[in-house]
Structure formats: structure tokens, C-alpha cells
Design a protein that fits this description.
It is built from nine helices and nine strands. It is of the alpha+beta class and 298 residues long. Strands 1, 2, 3, 4, 5, 6, 7, 8 and 9 form a nine-stranded mixed beta sheet that branches. Strand 5, helix 7 and strand 6 form a beta-alpha-beta unit. Helix 5 packs antiparallel against helix 6 and helix 7 runs antiparallel to helix 9. The longest helix is centred in the middle third of the chain and has 17 residues. The chain is globular and about 50 Å long.
Length: 298
């Protein structure tokens, strides 16, 4: 069982644009225009047992059809409630909206130790997945580095899970990542297994079909990545990509991506979903949060 929930010092409000003149028509069942936005106040809390299905759903939209025991991974995340946050709707708003489920989870930001917990089934599956993906899609140097880190207990590797519903703005990432950094630091002070040498992120992005402009030059032994029009599911992860020590990507076109489910307009562009695996020196995470703060405040 998880500990009683504690609210993180995270409170954010999704900003909505000015409503158009025909907004009332849309509310009465008119045609979807693609401009409908709502204003919602969110807060961060530590994960608890009742968040199980919400967290698992978010993991599903990230990992899709990968061979992973997502139920076990979800339980592991809930069990380490002293590190990581789930994004929930504010209690004050829920009091006025009886139809909302108080257990809805809109996002999860946490880290799991791929080194210390390697004998747990779901972590073993994650490690195998990373080796297989880097071998198939990464350079030899990239694949070798990931294999080396996974086998070197002196350089613990942490998988940062930074997942949320697609319409939640990037502003939310700042307090969540900042809180995660502080929690990791506190855990290290208590001699807990969170003193990571590297972090690995699995980022979601989408490439506009038919917009290939060539390939970027190979840098630091990384795969040459096609220079297409790219849309990041989590916009702040573009900054993470810029300071990556190693990265590779792969298409998930043949897998169902629940992260982009919903209504589409006739004129919407066609995009192919990708995953980009990014390896980051642990010392870069805190400075990165400051850069993200500047990015979202522009």
C-alpha cells in the first residue's frame, strides 16, 4: 500500500485563448473547429494506489506495444511515492464538477532506477528493450554506451518518465521537473539509491509527412537524423535533445498511438509518430530545468 497522499508545491493553470464569437455554437453541438480550449487548475501530488489505472494509461501511450509489464511498472512507481509526482485536477475544482473522476491522472513525472532494480521483472524488460532498440536504431557507439552503462553498477542509470496528455501545456514541466530534482537530492542525502550518473528519456515526437529536408550531420557518433518538420509532444524536451550526450530514434507508425487520439479536421497535416531515446549526463538535469523555465516564459 502507498503512503497517504501529499500535495506537492505545484499549482498550475492551463491558459486558454480568447473564445471566438461562435463558441456558443460549439458548446451546443456545432462542428468542431479545433480552437476549443478550457481553463483547468492542476496540482502535483505523490502517486497513490487509486492512481494505478491513470498512470498505467499514460505508460501505455508512451510504450505502446513494447513487451513490458506495465502493471508491475505502475506498482513500482506508486511504491516509491517519495520521488515523483502525478498531475491531478485541483480539489477545489472537483467540488464543483461532480462528473469528473477524482482519480483521473493527467500526467506523471518520476524516475526509476534501471541499475539497482535490475532484478525486478519490469525493469529487466526495460533494460532488454533499451539494448534491442539501441542495437537496431542507434550507432555502434550509442549501443555500446547503453550496454556499458547497464552493466556498470558504479554508474547508475535512471529512466525519467515525463508523460502527460497531449493538450497539457509545457509550463507544467517546470515545477514537476524541479520537484523531481529536489526529491532526488533528498533521497541521496538519505543514502537511497538515487545517485544517478546518467538519465535516459524516451521522448514522443511527430514528423510531418512529405517534409524531409535532408539529414543533419552526424555529431558525436549519433545517428544522422532526418531534418523534417518536427512537433514534440512535450515541447520542453526539444531543449533536452539539444544537450543530449547520445540519442537515437525510431518510428512507431505501425503501433496505435493513443497520445494523438481525438477529433481531427479535414485540413490537418499528416504526421508520423516517433520515439527518440535521449541519454543525458545527470549533472545536466538541474541546469536544464532553468533553461526550460526561460523557454516556457517566452
Amino acid at each position: 500500500m502507498s503512503a497517504p497522499p501529499k500535495k506537492r508545491e505545484i499549482a498550475l493553470e492551463e491558459r486558454s485563448s480568447d473564445e471566438s464569437d461562435n463558441s456558443s455554437e460549439n458548446e451546443e453541438g456545432g462542428e468542431y473547429t479545433g480552437q476549443q480550449e478550457i481553463q483547468v487548475e492542476f496540482e502535483g501530488r505523490n502517486p497513490i494506489d487509486s492512481d494505478f489505472h491513470g498512470i498505467k494509461q499514460l505508460l501505455q501511450q508512451l510504450f505502446l506495444k513494447a513487451h513490458l509489464n506495465l502493471s508491475a511498472l505502475t506498482e513500482l512507481i506508486i511504491g516509491q511515492s517519495f520521488v515523483g509526482s502525478v498531475v491531478k485536477q485541483s480539489d477545489n475544482e472537483l467540488e464543483d464538477e461532480d462528473e469528473d473522476d477524482p482519480n483521473d491522472v493527467f500526467g506523471i513525472t518520476t524516475v526509476v532506477n534501471l541499475t539497482e532494480k535490475q532484478n525486478i521483472e519490469c525493469i529487466s524488460q526495460l533494460r532488454t528493450l533499451l539494448v534491442e532498440l539501441s542495437t537496431e536504431h542507434g550507432t555502434d557507439r550509442c549501443s555500446t554506451m547503453i550496454r556499458t552503462l547497464l552493466s556498470d553498477s558504479s554508474k547508475p542509470l535512471g529512466l525519467v518518465i515525463n508523460e502527460r496528455f497531449v493538450n497539457i501545456p509545457a509550463q507544467i514541466s517546470v515545477p514537476l521537473l524541479d520537484s523531481l530534482c529536489k526529491e532526488i537530492k533528498k533521497a541521496c542525502e538519505k543514502k537511497m539509491a538515487y545517485d544517478f550518473a546518467y538519465y535516459i528519456f524516451i521522448c514522443k515526437l511527430y514528423k510531418v509527412d512529405g517534409k524531409t529536408k535532408g539529414k543533419k550531420k552526424n555529431r558525436k557518433g549519433q545517428n544522422p537524423i532526418e531534418e523534417q518538420d518536427v512537433i514534440w509532444s512535450n515541447p520542453e524536451e526539444e531543449l533536452l535533445d539539444e544537450v543530449a550526450d547520445m540519442k537515437f530514434e525510431f518510428s512507431v507508425k505501425n503501433e496505435t498511438d493513443s497520445g494523438l487520439s481525438g477529433n481531427w479536421l479535414e485540413d490537418d497535416i499528416s504526421m508520423t509518430p516517433f520515439r527518440r531515446v535521449v541519454l543525458l549526463d545527470a549533472k545536466k538535469l538541474e541546469p536544464l530545468v532553468s533553461r526550460i523555465q526561460e523557454f516556457v516564459n517566452r
